[in-house]
Fold these 3 entries.
Entry 1:
Amino acid sequence: MDIFSCQIQNTVEPHLSYAAATQERESNSPQDKSIPQTRSVGSHTRYWATGRTLKIAIMRLDDALFDTVKNAINQWAPYVNLTFEFIDLNEDDELYEGDIRIEISPLYNTVARSLIGTDALAAPSYSATMWLGTNSTEATYEAVAIHEFGHALGRLHEHQHPDANIPWDREKVYKALEKNHGMSRATVDATLFPLPRDNNATYAPYDRHSVMHYQVTNDATLGDWEQLTNLQLSEGDIAFARQMYP
Ligand SMILES: [Zn+2]
């Protein structure tokens, strides 16, 4: 059962996350109703200030891998009012430079990771904020990088949309993820299954073709339902990006 490919990192203290988000962009506060709020696990969104330059530091293991990651991130560029500036992540520096800091290691070949949006501002600057594998010959490598950068822009998982109607075979999924990844039932609930509707948020329609959707293999569902890895930004992803960063 190959469904778990990314783990959101919620390692930032909630009050630091809130302070960083609202200092960066006032409308990240759930009290501000002047622009539509999009959904969030917590009570605030974590979007970057519109129009700003995002400094993106990528570990340069080799030029080809650097360019692969950079090109994946640049898929988002036409649809967001942000300027991407790419630099090398220099491990010799005591404090890493870069708003978003991407570590690349075989450790993350199975499960990639990222902080959500402005949580990167609250993370210590000696640590990365996004983690990718090195298996760039895999057909889905670029898709994983696009997905992780979606998190870095502040997006959450589409398969956890409250209206996600995936007919999960829950007991089978619990057993498989415990066996393969040592995940508890609570962790599976928090990672995979739909989240309750947040009244502070407005929602785009559930989009199974979103890059922010996990691959769902047929053996994880009841009946005949599967969603293979989405390789490109969907119409919904593009609309969402434009709404987040007008
Ligand atoms: Zn993810």
Entry 2:
Amino acid sequence: MLRDPLFVPKHTKGRPMPEGRFWEKEYSSARVWLAGGAVWMAIGTLAGLGSAIHLVAPDFFANIPWLEFGRIRQVHVNTVLFGFVVQMLIGCALYIMPRVLATKLFSEPLANLAALFFNAGVVLGDIGLMAGYTQGREYAEYIFPADVLLVIALVMVAVNMVMTLVRRNEQLLYVSSWYFAGAIVWTVFMYPLGNVMWHPATGAETGITDAIFLWFYGHNVFGLLVTPLAVGIAYYMFPRIAGAPLYSQALSIIGFWSLLLFYTHIGAHHLIQAPIPTWLKTVSIIDSFAMMLPVATVLVNQWYTARGRFGRFLTNPSAKLMLVGTIWYAIVCIQGPLQSLAVVQRVTHFNNWVVGHAHIAVLGFTGFIALGGMYYVLPYVTGRRVYSEKLINIQYWLILLGLLDFFIVLTIAGLIQGQDWLNGATVYRTVPQMKPYMTLRLAGGLMIITGAFVGVYNVLMTFRKGEPINP
Ligand code: HEM
Ligand code: HEM
């Protein structure tokens, strides 16, 4: 039995699920996007396992071209990013958006069709990558037809969100709806631009111009897509779990606009070691530090909302995931500005330090919030209690411990690599030193993968056997 009454929403009590075809039913699209996210998390982490095995035993998959590191790493990164995190966050947003606007989603069939296109894009993109078809630009590797499918899906979600906004009954726009609509509308423009979709064959410009384009996109896919979606979900859940009003509406809106102001143009901090114009590097470093403003507004606002009521966050498993997600956000965004400095990057760039940052950011911050949001929203959209609270807790611990392992091991490994290179050692000499660290990372990865599979089981069992809420 679930202990926290807030975990089982009052308004779903005794409320029959509407009749009609599956894709027309209220919240059917949220269910599809959430289930899709859970399944892709398991598949994407398996591809991570394939990549991690390579770094311990490079010949393990010898002669199996589609499992080679160069391919499977791309499958891992794109699958966890789009298939898992983006999809699960959108699933939560499709439930939360109509709730905060006191209306129904504009069109359930449209959102379900969008899920079809989105998942077809991920499947096609992944098959292409495994077959060796890639556009070779990080986070933009999917081939053109997959890009087209993803953009069509995102346009459909954007139309749905904007029309839901237009038809709202609640005039006050709660900050979550700003973040959701903003994230999807920005991405509809940013994705084709960053993927250079006007050059379908290569998906790239040439030379250094392309590097600038790529990192404009590569940075914003995190800053203007997954970050605002995750922040919007946390803004919805914090007051509900704390049972208290949001600390400050004004702060929430300052945070929204300052994210747009500072995040959009700091992608060049990925290119501090590259021959791009110096003014671009300087702007990117200064505004990387300015990013502390929007981040602080979010964290202060949410933690102040929970002040004196943190106990509630520890007894409710989805709230625990959410709270820990915000703590990772704080760590990521203290580490981020520091590693944008040239003097720090001299040691940390091009090595496992950055991979550590990437995992605590994408899994720790947005992934934890996606999972917390999903478990919170599931009873509302299925009319059933989550199958097992115990399994959520097991998943939470597996992923948390695995991620802590990643963070510590990869940070140390990165510092060793960076220091060695700075002292003139060749990459060839440092590689053998990495073996114990890569083995430890593999162990942490196995915990995360187990957590992902526990999650899929729990979600699917919720659909099949979750206890109906006051039928
Ligand atoms: C204040 C906020 C942040 C700042 C200033 C920041 C800064 C940076 C910098 C400078 C790098 C490049 C490091 C290098 O290549 O040497 C980087 C990498 C990265 N960041 Fe952040 N970060 C921030 C927050 C985030 C967030 C919230 C996410 C995800 C939601 C994120 C995801 C990533 C990823 C995935 C990479 C790896 C990129 C690659 O593949 O090379 N960061 N970050
Ligand atoms: C859902 C959870 C996960 C997320 C969101 C995630 C995300 C990412 C991201 C964004 C990168 C690119 C990093 C960069 O280029 O700086 C990456 C790379 C990688 N991840 Fe994951 N990951 C997850 C789980 C795992 C697991 C479970 C494993 C291992 C079993 C793993 C192993 C790797 C490896 C080996 C790389 C390539 C690192 C390299 O090139 O040196 N990841 N992951």
Entry 3:
Amino acid sequence: MPSYEFFCPKCNKEISLTLTISERERGEYKCPSCGAKDLQPLLGAFFSKTSRKS
Ligand SMILES: [Zn+2]
């Protein structure tokens, strides 16, 4: 199963969840820490990539 990155506004942190495609499409996911369901998917379209300078 693919894993997806989300941002939890309640925890104010990024989390990664392993979901099936159908689970993701139905929104059947929640924050493992606080149980919030209003997670924001961290897709490239939503988030600008963090550039790190080494
Ligand atoms: Zn949370």
